[in-house]
Amino acid sequence: MIKRPSKPSSGELCVIHHSSDCSNINITLPLFNMAFTRxxxxxxxxxxxxxxxxxxxxxxxxxxxxxxxxxxxxxxxxTEAEVQSxxxxx
Length: 90
Description:
The chain is of the alpha+beta class. The protein has one domain (2-88). It is built from two helices and seven strands. It has helices at residues 46-57, 80-85; strands at 2-4, 14-19, 23-29, 34-42, 61-66, 69-77, 86-88. The protein has a five-stranded antiparallel β-sheet with strand order 2-3-4-6-5, covered by helices on one side. The protein has a two-stranded parallel ribbon with strand order 1-7. The longest helix has 12 residues, at 46-57.
C-alpha cells in the first residue's frame, strides 16, 4: 500500500520516493489517475530494461544514459486497484 504524507488540494501533485543501492524511483501521482515515473538504474542489462519498459509503458517513455546511470521518464494510467491502494495520512 502506498501512503501519501498528506492529502493534496485539487490538481496538486504528490511525489512518492523509493530508493535502494542501485536505483532511485520517484512516482508522481496527480489526482487524474496517472503515474509519472522517473527511474535511475546502474548495473542493469539494457535488453532486460527495454523489455520491462515496453511491457510497463509501451512506447511512451524516454531513456537517457549518462556514464553508468540510465535515467527513464515515463507515464501511464493507473489501474483501479492501484488507485484504491493509495491512502491518505492525516
